[in-house]
Amino acid sequence: MLIRRNQIKAAEFRELQWLDHDPMTLASLEGQVVLLYFWDYSYVVSVRNLVYLSMWHGRYADKGLQIVAIHAPQFDFGKDERNLRQAVEYHGLPFPVANDVNLRTWDAYANRFWPATFLIDRQGYLAACHFGEGGINEIEMSMQELLKEGRSRVVMPKDSLVGQPDRELQRRPVSPSLYFGYRRGRIGNGNGFTPGEVCEYETPDRFRRDIHYMKGAFRCLADSMILSGHQGEVTVDYDSSDVCLVAAPPSNGPGRIIVMQDDQPVFNDRGSDVIDTPDMPSIVNVTHPDSYHLVHNHGVARHRLKLVFLSPGIELFCLDFLRLQ
Known about the structure:
The chain contains 5 helices and 16 strands. It has helices at about 45-50, 50-60, 80-90, 105-110, 135-150, and strands at about 15-20, 35-40, 65-70, 95-100, 115-120, 125-130, 180, 200, 215-220, 225, 230-250, 255-260, 265, 285, 290-310, 315-320. A hairpin with a 5-residue loop joins strand 5 (about 115-120) and strand 6 (about 125-130). Residues about 160-170 have low confidence and may be disordered.
């Protein structure tokens, strides 16, 4: 989305924790085109666009583009520099990354989305923005226009994505993200949430779509639920091609989850985190706080997901339902 030019001065960075980079300010970047990217390493939709940012860094850094990736954590574990550093190293990000632990820069831009992309012109004014996934061609086209302003001799890459249509997938609605904590969550069990306490849940005979149902003893926290009993379950009817779970392991080691779809084991397909062991199929090992890819289907359709948690202390944050290719 284009923004009326020379009207809104971009807000300065606030209270950012920089990873392996000297602290930066927007004032020091005037004269360059700046791309600000708000993301969360545990939200797979915002992670998917990182490949485009790395590509743009390689194509346009020498033409005056500066990319700054601002990590805005949804959950407390994302505030830990060690967890973010592990994600940044895994993705091999070649541009500066900062952690917006208290969401001060996020608030300065009145942002409410992961991911969110802001383009800032050479004079420090907001020029364009895009919220959510997609819009890659539009962002690159706006970026090229800003880089060419007043510099007619700048030559853009011949193999730019500009002009190539975004690859559209089927438009069947996808289920919304489901949060486990009582602050943003919605649970289908009749006894609901018991904030700060352990609640024993039983699954009902019937399920409503896009609502999760628990079985077993779980401690209810603001942003998560922690398995307190020996074993627990989650069941949800959903529409999507892919499912990811944001989870953290118990304090005493990895957490184990059995993944079932439509009462059948789910096998590793196209990069999911499911592994098959000799004694048990469809296992996901939760080794650190992150998003784990549970299910990949070839197309959006209605399914029933059942997760069996085998490790007391495993912490559940949210389920994300995605339309991946």
